[in-house]
Amino acid sequence: MKIYTKGGDRGETSLYDNTRVPKDHIRVESYGTIDELNSALGLARGFIDDDSINVSIKDVQRELFNVAGELATADHSKFPEKVTVEKIESLESEIDSMLDKLNKEQQFKFIIPGSCHRSASLHMARTICRRAERRIVTLSREEDIRPELVKYVNRLSDWIYALARTLECSIEYVDFEK
Question: What is the pTM of this model?
């Protein structure tokens, strides 16, 4: 079996349900950005030496395949809905737990991201997640996208932010008065 099919040589690709679309279609852009996020999270794991955190990140990476699968399917009957309200609530609980460990007065101040490789890689993943969210919102204006999918990706960017904050080696706050 060869990795190349030559099916995309004219600028089209097949979705999960075999629908053909241009490679620059907003749907392809949406799930492609989720794929990019998944890779960025994999890179971040390489800088983190805490096994429990790496397990959590890997669980998120597995969930991102469900997000991408749903985004890659125009015919929703062909891909079961896997992103649930419970998964969103689980992220919210983890975010609350992580933020509770931070200095309450400084939790929501802007910081210069990336005081070490582990936090820098997570901040990069967070910005990719935000871009994925923007692409999905654009897609949702054209096609039917479940609100749970948008909520999950939105909450995931908050989860990555909270994780990055807890793993900063040092914090440098942004002083807007200077």
Answer: 0.91
